[in-house]
Amino acid sequence: MQDAATATPETIFLKDYTPFGYKVDSVSLTFKLAPRATRVISKIVFSPNPETTDARFFLHGKQLDLKWAKIDGTEIATRAVPGGLEADVPTVPFLWEAEVEISPETNTALEGLYQSNGMYCTQCEAEGFRKITFYPDRPDVMSTFTVRIEGSEKVMLSNGNPTASGTGFAEWYDPWPKPAYLFALVAGDLVNHPGSFTTKSGRPVELNIWVRPGDEGKCAFGMEALKKSMTWDEEVYGCEYDLDLFNIVAVDDFNMGAMENKGLNIFNSSCVLASPETSTDANFERIEAIIAHEYFHNWTGNRITCRDWFQLCLKEGLTVFRDAQFTSDMRGAAVKRINDACDLRGRQYAEDNGPLAHPPRPDSFVEINNFYTATVYEKGAEVIGMLKRLVGDEAYTKALDLYFERHDGQACTIEDWLNVFEDATGRSMKRFKRWYTSAGTPRLSVKESYNKGTFKLTFRQDTPPTPGQKQKKPRVIPIAVGLLAEDGTETHPTQVLEMTKRQQSFKWEKLSAKPVASILREFSAPVILQRETNDTERAFLLAHDTDPFNRWEAGRELSKSTLKAMITTGAPASALYLDSLHAAIRDDAQDPGFRAMLLTLPGQSELAQMLHDDGVTPDPQAIYDAVQTLKLTMAQQMQDTLPRLYAASQVDGPYSPDAADANKRALAGAVLGLISRTDGGKTAQAQYDDADNMTQQLGGLSALLTAEKGEAAVQAFYTQWRHDRLVLDKWFMLQVAHAAPEATAATAEALTRHADFTHTNPNRFRATLGALAGNHAGFHHDSGASYALLADWLITLDPLNPQTTARMCAAFQTWRHYDAKRQDVMRAAMERILAQKDLSRDTTEMLSRILS
Ligand code: PHE
Ligand code: ZN
User: Fold this and answer.
1) CA of 320, nearest ligand number
2) The whole model's pTM is what?
């Protein structure tokens, strides 16, 4: 059966939620694996759900060839309806049985059961299980699963614990009731990197990372990260693992980073495989964070899941928040917070301030796959950070304990989550809830006054309208503030002000002199702070603020202020900025990772967004030129310091991905990027030639490209790494990322004709076309060639892989910020995609929202 005519995209609303009419008491699945004709036989015990009167028996199903269906042993006739089937069923518990045929080998969407390098694997979140068999594929239907896999593969895995295996088969039982989106199956000729863990109550757990033969040597780091995550979750949240076995599998073709299937996490190989020779420090950090993230889902997502997909941020926001806490603990809080703020501003603010803006909990969607967004994930995590700041650490712990106790085994809502905080703290969450239900980034403006010993801050919050939400009610905003005296000493340590109104003042009395305020410390809320200030005050805070986030922020504000002047008036780089930056990076008392962040300028798309917010139409080439000029000026002005700093930041001894060494390399890397603007690439070439790890090698290569001396190294790098698909992705990406604006489209286009380019592998596609969209000046180059190239490839990919295509449409989300000519060309590119026959629902929804 095919989809009964892929009907016009239908919008689904939160307000229409109704429970399913039946409960699933147990599921038993048999898979007879074959590349183009896998048979799936299901036995499902249903019983009428006493909580609902809706007796319609509807099972989701997509691209399934139904062979037969039975109820209580008797073959029945089913009715094909859009999106699945209906049947007449008894009013008492009954056994549903069905057999379907599916074709994993031709499944290029990488959703449901598919093959990657000949290995069978599944991806069911959000609605992929319906491509495996007929089922109520919704997260509030939970059941235990028994699975039998028949095939000739050496390794055949599913969720839970193994119960039996022999020649040609393996059986699994997962005792924990779960929604179908957490189902997983893997079968292939895999090898494992084993490990073990004993939980705090003494349960021995067998751990494995399963990979393709040849990748065994890249698993040790992931295994350690997993054990650290298991320990951390016990210590910090009291969450213990609940099966005898925990498996991770690395897959080359995967739409996302990784997936938290119960007891059988499936990872994009780029998010688990690591070795010093092939992975950068940034890769190591990301891998550790993603392993933690997926592991933490075992409690926040799996044991307590979502009632419906509108509640996605219930599991994702909380799990991102938890993995951020973990990374802070493992690698240092200040650098992690700065990284997260950069990421939020780069990706989430772009979303929140454009046509794709939506609340962390949306109230409608067409295709749920389009809502795995920075808003749901990262802003969802920020909202929890604010909640914790407002109620305090102790109350947060109490609320989380209550959450696990009250909702274990349930499919929950944001209301359930907030009720737990109300019950644990006695505070009303009614107003706070607006963070979940409204879209848009609040602008927080602040005015200062000082009079006879009284210092007053007056805040005002305004959120611009977003699609479907004109009026914005005030939100509860935790504003962390500290006060400094003129000599730089802190007179008032951080205190969290709670803003609840549209406009509100806070006072400090009996001061001996006007203080300097440090506002929104630790980036205490995801807002845009609009402050009456000047570069002198910023320089003061960069030198003296005791809050590391705000010290960095002062430097960032200075860099934005000078860049804005350079872009819009052609002013030279600010001497005050250069001098204060110079002083800050020479201060050896400061963490090298922190100093590396100070040396990193805001991204060009973030600058474009800033200009747009200030009412200036961004000129991508002018932004690019200003950034180049500023970097060159930095390199020239700090000419004496940089080589010294570079030498002092070298790490001796064998490579370790630990934060201490990685932070030193980060500083050395940032410094090298500047040095190569004045030394003709000499230092970069030496680093490239001597490198014994990928961080050094890639850093050297990237600096060589900056110095326009990278040609030979690019060739050498390819020859050295052509056998390693993950390193090759870096090779594709780096060339596009470093291309000059006028050469970007041609560079990307040539790479798409390279023998190693393949558009069906999402990593390679993103490495090349994602880098095209990420090279701001190159993507928006006057010629329009990049827009056209991206559109061509999105058109090619859409019929094969709608999810990855749709996500990449976000490259066009800021189109209205640019001049009329660019707008016209971008609109034409989007309309050309939209005009394709049979364009996917995913891509159609994204482009229609962006154009609307
Ligand atoms: N739930 C996964 C995570 O956050 C992400 C994911 C979503 C993966 C959809 C695949 C498909 O960890
Ligand atoms: Zn997640």
Assistant:
1) 2
2) 0.98
